[in-house]
Design goal:
mainly alpha, 41 residues, rod-shaped
Length: 41
């Protein structure tokens, strides 16, 4: 199995996952109005 398609699939998958996580976190932050304490400990 060629290596290039596998690398492309992995990179695209990671990019989509990070993109969706960023959108979801922004939606939750904007909904809960917690911009000041974005990283609660």
């Amino acid at each position: 199995m060629p290596l290039l398609p596998v690398i492309l699939i992995v990179v695209v998958g990671l990019a989509v996952a990070l993109f969706l996580a960023e959108i979801l976190s922004r939606k939750f932050v904007s909904r809960d109005r917690t911009e000041d304490d974005e990283f609660p400990n």
